[in-house]
Automatic annotation (TrEMBL):
Residues 89-196 form the GST C-terminal domain. The keyword Amino-acid biosynthesis does not apply. CDD domains: GST_C_Delta_Epsilon (cd03177), GST_N_Delta_Epsilon (cd03045). PROSITE patterns: GST_CTER, GST_NTER. GO terms for biological process: glutathione metabolic process. This is Glutathione S-transferase.
């Protein structure tokens, strides 16, 4: 299998999520770093590939795809040895999709609202309202995890790899809400899974 190219920046949760999905599914990846701190995503060469200038971006034989969730779905559909990571059963798949959209439209948005001003705008404090907003969303996540072992059922799927909500961010989130015991348990499960 020839490798796919992933434009990646390790500080980015979505980008790490796409890379984890590729590794879990077993797709060889050529990683090309796009350094957001140096604004490399705004170079003409990258804008030609992705005018929306975001990472992760996947390139495979001239086919270009961005958004970590879309990338994970594509890789799982195309390269998954079975349907464990992205179930074919309609209801199971719908639940995975719902969790992916939750990650994209809610979790990522709340985390970005906190991280972006600190990383790029010189902010040094986290506003209480932003913490409260994130805690509300984390509460939904706790509810999902109290009903099932993994984010979308009783076995791991690409919904567990979403860059905004996995073990990767647990230690940062812990500083915001220490009593997230379910998140802690989940982060251990994810770290112990052989795919990582
Ligand atoms: N929903 C997208 C978010 C992608 C995104 O916003 N990436 C950020 C880094 S976390 C980025 O590339 N920012 C640089 C820019 O937009 O110029 C995904 O899941 O891939």
């Amino acid at each position: 299998m020839s490798p796919v190219k992933l434009y990646h920046f390790p500080f980015s949760g979505p980008s790490r999520g796409a890379l984890m999905a590729a590794r879990a599914i077993g797709v060889p990846v050529d990683v090309e770093i796009v350094d957001l701190f140096k604004k490399e995503q705004m170079k003409d060469s990258f804008l030609k590939i992705n005018p929306q200038h975001c990472i992760p971006t996947l390139e495979e034989d001239g086919f270009v795809l961005w958004d970590s969730h879309a990338i994970a779905c594509y890789l799982a559909d195309k390269y998954g040895k079975d349907d464990q990571w992205y179930p074919k059963d309609l209801k199971q798949r719908a639940l995975v999709n719902q969790r992916l959209y939750f990650d994209s439209s809610s979790m990522y948005v709340k985390i970005r609202a906190i991280c972006y001003p600190i990383l790029f705008l010189g902010e040094t404090q986290i506003k209480e309202a932003l913490k409260d907003d994130l805690n509300t969303t984390l509460g939904f996540m706790e509810q999902f995890l109290s009903d099932s072992k993994w984010v979308a059922g009783n076995s791991p799927t690409i919904a567990d790899l979403g860059g905004s909500k996995t073990a990767q961010n647990y230690h940062a989130l812990q500083k915001i809400k220490r009593e997230l015991l379910l998140m802690e348990k989940q982060s251990k499960k994810i770290s112990n899974n052989k795919a990582y």
